[in-house]
Design goal:
The chain is of the alpha/beta class. It contains eleven helices and 13 strands. The longest helix has 26 residues. It is globular, with a radius of gyration of 22 Å.
Length: about 375
């Protein structure tokens, strides 16, 4: 296959920036980028933002997680969870108006869906948060094993598909994140302690594992007892051993590996259900490659075969062509450009390199620079 000479290009911008200072001016800026596609998120996580060209809000202090559209209540009847409308929009239809204006100017519209990374949801609906073995909720993480959470993410997916009709849906964080070491600490948390604290011990997930024949409730008690002992003492050299497949296979007499298998199946089934909803709506999924490791996200690598657009940075054409075998037939390879460019030549060089290896497209992150 000869190298491509043209690339599709996608531009990510903040949803509230599409109305600053007004819709027409913002869309003019988007169109002037020359990109083929605008990517916006209808639901965003906690962060603060520098917007140097904004005349009235150069520093935007973000929220703990919010949505940028008015929800269709009829879709959420199977879950008590509800999102909060962002204070950064004037009304529930702002983003829909921006989407319509984008299409009228000849650009495609895609969505960046940030699922399981919302501080607001995990605080307000803490009973459905991912829990550690002691029953404490993790900030910003919901339990994908809780039926109420699964129903919420399914409803939210259908909601944004109905409202925005995106070409592509970028799925982010529809899996379990790891746990960061607390910023205030005078003691050591070993890799194995950190790993066990980060697993999903919510009762919803444990019930699903129990139904699959895994003694999850007893395991949770055993893990909590083990952690009490190991966290309260200075770790020895043996305590500091890594988390690896060999340890996982034998830890807690094999029950931990069985529990992780059950968690992975629950998470992957939900991912596949949402994939099917997106596909049925005529959209495709944009996703990063999923590795086969058992230790990471509780997401099985079998989902790679369903990804329609892949985010990766291949080193050469052979690596890119080899990667195509792992994804859905006709899947696009998009090279992401996250970084800061201080001169045009560097940007042109990277875009040309993406074209030379045979990528289908590139994505740019405007962040606060729209």
């Amino acid at each position: 296959m000869p190298p491509k000479t043209t690339l599709r290009s996608a531009l990510y911008a903040y949803p509230w920036a599409l109305h600053r200072p007004d819709l027409n001016t913002a869309i003019d800026r988007v169109v002037s980028s020359g990109c083929d596609e605008l990517v916006v998120t209808p639901c965003y996580h906690r962060a603060d933002f520098f917007q140097p060209a904004d005349p009235t809000m150069p520093i935007c202090y973000g929220e703990r997680g919010a949505v940028f559209y008015g929800i269709d209540e009829s879709l959420y009847s199977d879950t008590p969870i509800r999102p909060r409308l962002s204070r950064l929009v004037d009304g529930p239809d702002d983003l829909e108006h921006a989407a319509e204006a984008t299409r009228q100017r000849g650009m495609d519209l895609s969505l960046w869906m940030i699922y399981n990374f919302q501080d607001e949801l995990s605080e307000v609906w803490s009973q459905f948060a991912r829990h550690d073995p002691f029953g404490n909720g993790h900030r910003g993480a919901m339990s994908l094993g809780a039926p109420e959470v699964a129903s919420y993410f399914v409803a939210q997916t259908q909601d944004v598909l109905n409202r925005f009709k995106p070409n592509v849906v970028w799925i982010e964080s529809l899996y379990r994140h790891g746990m960061a070491i607390p910023s205030k600490t005078r003691a050591i948390i070993t890799p194995r302690c950190q790993f066990l604290l980060a697993l999903d011990w919510n009762q919803g997930m444990r019930t699903q594992a129990e139904n699959a024949g895994v003694p999850a409730n007893a395991l949770c008690q055993d893990v909590a007892a083990w952690l009490r002992q190991h966290l309260a003492r200075m770790p020895s050299e043996a305590d500091s051993a890594p988390v690896d497949e060999q340890w996982l296979a034998t830890a807690f007499d094999g029950a931990l590996a069985a529990y992780m298998d059950a968690c992975r199946e629950v998470t992957t089934n939900l991912w596949e259900q949402i994939h099917d909803i997106i596909l049925a709506a005529g959209s495709r999924i944009y996703h990063q490659p999923v590795t086969p490791s058992s230790l990471g996200t509780d997401l099985d690598a079998r989902v790679n075969a369903r990804i329609g657009r892949v985010m990766m940075s291949p080193s050469d054409a052979s690596q890119l062509q080899a990667a195509r075998q792992d994804y859905a037939s006709g899947a696009e390879i998009f090279v992401p450009f996250h970084g800061q460019y201080d001169d045009e030549a560097s940007l042109v060089k990277d875009v040309e390199a993406a074209a030379e290896v045979g990528a289908d497209g590139v994505s740019f992150y405007a962040y606060g620079l729209l």
